């Protein structure tokens, strides 16, 4: 899209007030002919004139004049080296000798602003302005200070005066309009924008700002008129027509938007955005055939690269509702895109995202893996891939993919966590500890609500891994770190209390945790078994039996061999040896039992 008028660049490139002020003051130093005491800042591009400070400083004696020049030059030197405090000392000395020097007051105000002393700067800025009300830099400085203090009415008066001084100042109308908006005067802002455009011509950014004001006032027709002005200025540019259509669609004027989009397509029949917007309008109307036809124009275009098509499809998916028809339509388009561009990673990701959203995890996982092979530079793809590996219990894939991802993103704590989890599952405890410790270090450096939750998961698994290594001190420490942040963490309450019971260590602590666990999960066979085993180790066999029977009742068909074996052990301790052997034999049929089970069955004893 071509810029409308060159004056727009002046808005974009005009230096900040501080830079302008500094440039002006340097101009005083190098020399120009002021109209009053150092008052008028030089215009950009103006040629330097001989140094003349005599209008503000007595020419006799010469020594005083040179002293004033030296103070000012020293102050400016410190301003240019970003040492405003030192500059202030010089300007203050000068003001003691020349209290009515406008440029010195202006420079003092600038230095005070640089040190954050806006309130103290205001009297100096006011004095500079009062000494020379025709100097636009003094006017702008005082106006900005008024705005900082939310004294909008006073700033508005100054800007209005500035615009009246010269048409050359009309570009400052943009700042005035902004202040009117701050001051909740949208109609005055609109009037000011119109004055600027009348003086300087149509400007795209001003037009958009006017549209925002009109829309906020619910004057949609006025906003559309502004869009028509842009179209009229560039009648051969379809982009303005498309933007106008988007405005209409956003305000529920779809039928009117169709006309704008048809006009855009007459200028460029292959405009992908126009076709996508038409597809959305027809989708909302329930005309899925027309919607699909518009998208087919886009995807059949051989001149559009795959990445752009993927972005368009992503945009369409974002606009579509969640109805089954829309989801299936989007999925078909994504499948066609991925098939047409099998070596484009973005196309594979697009299809993978849709499959994942629709619960087709295995297919999505395979496509994420393919996308990662095509282009491994996108961290989010690896994250999605590892998440699905975990959800699908594909531990070998989780281990391989996490190692590949870490080669590319070695500073990502979540990737180290995935790698540690996979190693822990495969009982590679040393590798698991190394990965999880790295994950903990990286996650600890970037705290957030999500990462804090992740950090708890890392510590929980570190507890398991250190226990696997037999390092009980570090295992207990990791578990305790989790419980400090999350006293109800089921994973830690279960594993920590069970491992303590196996060691017959800290049994009161184990009982406290297992009790809390079954209170939170009264129908979990696994957790009931953990609590029962803690009671068993503490030789409360009757209570252990009670909770083991609850565990058996909670999951009669899926109960593990371990729970049945524990039940047999409790029965044996209670003197019911025949029933104990019977349960041990049941446990053997289920599997997942201890290495001593066969000996128990053969000997009929523990």
CATH architecture of the domain at 1-149: Alpha Horseshoe
C-alpha Rg, in Å?
A: 38 Å
Number of helices: 33
Instruction: Supply the CATH class of the domain at 1-149.
Output: Mainly Alpha
Oligomer: single chain
In this structure, how is the largest beta sheet organized?
Answer: none
* The named CATH superfamily of the domain at 1-149: Tetratricopeptide repeat domain
Helix content: over 70%
Structural write-up:
With 606 residues, the chain is mainly alpha-helical. Among the domains are: 1-149, Tetratricopeptide repeat domain (Serine Threonine Protein Phosphatase 5, Tetratricopeptide repeat, Alpha Horseshoe), CATH 1.25.40; 207-304, Serine Threonine Protein Phosphatase 5, Tetratricopeptide repeat; 565-606, no CATH class. Helix content is 74%, strand content 0%. It has helices at residues 7-13, 17-30, 62-80, 84-97, 102-114, 118-131, 136-148, 152-165, 173-182, 186-200, 204-216, 220-233, 238-250, 254-267, 272-285, 288-299, 306-319, 324-340, 345-357, 361-374, 379-391, 395-408, 413-425, 429-444, 449-469, 472-485, 490-503, 507-520, 525-537, 541-554, 561-573, 577-590, 597-603.
């Amino acid at each position: 899209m071509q810029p409308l008028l060159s004056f727009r660049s002046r808005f974009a490139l005009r230096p900040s007030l501080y830079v302008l002020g500094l440039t002006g003051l340097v101009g005083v130093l190098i020399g120009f002919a002021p109209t009053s005491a150092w008052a008028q800042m030089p215009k950009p591009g103006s040629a330097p004139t001989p140094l003349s400070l005599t209008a503000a400083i007595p020419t006799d004696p010469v020594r005083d004049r040179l002293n004033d020049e030296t103070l000012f030059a020293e102050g400016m030197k410190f301003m240019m080296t970003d040492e405003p405090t030192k500059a202030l000392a010089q300007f203050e000395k000068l003001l003691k000798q020349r209290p009515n020097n406008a440029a010195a007051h202006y420079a003092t105000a600038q230095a005070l602003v640089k040190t954050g002393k806006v309130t103290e700067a205001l009297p100096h800025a006011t004095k500079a302005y009062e000494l020379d009300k025709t100097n636009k830099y003094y006017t702008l400085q005082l106006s900005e200070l008024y705005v900082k203090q939310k004294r909008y009415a006073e700033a508005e008066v100054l800007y209005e005066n500035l615009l009246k001084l010269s048409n050359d100042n009309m570009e400052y109308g943009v700042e005035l309009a902004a202040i009117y908006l701050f001051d909740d005067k949208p109609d005055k802002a609109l009037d000011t924008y119109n004055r600027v455009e009348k003086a300087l011509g149509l400007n795209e950014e001003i037009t958009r700002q006017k549209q925002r004001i009109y829309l906020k006032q619910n004057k949609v027709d006025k906003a559309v008129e502004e869009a028509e002005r842009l179209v009229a200025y560039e009648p051969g540019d379809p982009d303005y027509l498309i933007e106008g259509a988007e405005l209409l669609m956003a305000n529920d004027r779809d039928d009117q938007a169709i006309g704008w989009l048809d006009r855009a397509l007459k200028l460029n029949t292959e405009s992908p955005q126009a076709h996508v917007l038409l597809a959305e309008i027809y989708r909302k109307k329930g005309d899925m055939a027309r919607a699909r036809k518009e998208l087919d124009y886009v995807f059949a275009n051989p001149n559009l690269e795959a990445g752009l098509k993927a972005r368009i499809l992503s945009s369409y998916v974002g606009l579509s509702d969640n109805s089954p028809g829309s989801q299936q339509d989007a999925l078909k388009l994504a499948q066609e895109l991925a098939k047409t561009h099998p070596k484009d990673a973005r196309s594979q990701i697009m299809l993978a995202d849709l499959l994942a959203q629709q619960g087709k995890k295995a297919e999505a996982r395979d496509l994420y893996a393919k996308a990662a092979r095509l282009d491994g530079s996108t961290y989010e793809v690896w994250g999605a891939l590892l998440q699905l590996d975990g959800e699908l219990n594909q531990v070998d894939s989780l281990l391989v993919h996490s190692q590949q991802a870490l080669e590319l993103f070695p500073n990502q704590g979540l990737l180290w966590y995935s790698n540690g989890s996979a190693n822990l599952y495969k009982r590679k405890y040393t590798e698991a500890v190394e990965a999880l410790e790295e994950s903990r270090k990286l996650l600890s450096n970037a705290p957030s609500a999500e990462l804090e939750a992740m950090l708890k998961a890392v510590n929980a698994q570190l507890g398991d891994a250190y226990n696997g290594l037999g390092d009980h001190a570090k295992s207990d420490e990791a578990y305790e770190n989790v419980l400090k942040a999350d006293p109800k963490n089921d994973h830690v309450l279960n594993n920590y209390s069970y491992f303590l019971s196996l060691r017959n260590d800290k049994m009161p602590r184990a009982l406290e945790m297992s009790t809390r666990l079954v209170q939170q999960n009264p129908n979990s066979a696994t957790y009931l078994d953990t609590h029962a085993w803690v009671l068993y180790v503490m030789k409360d066999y009757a209570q252990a039996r009670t909770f083991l029977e609850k565990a058996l009742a909670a999951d009669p068909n899926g109960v593990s061999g371990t729970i049945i074996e524990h039940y047999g052990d409790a029965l044996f301790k209670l003197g019911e040896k025949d029933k104990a052997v019977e349960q041990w034999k049941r446990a053997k049929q289920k599997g997942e039992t201890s290495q001593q089970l066969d000996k128990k069955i053969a000997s009929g004893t523990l």
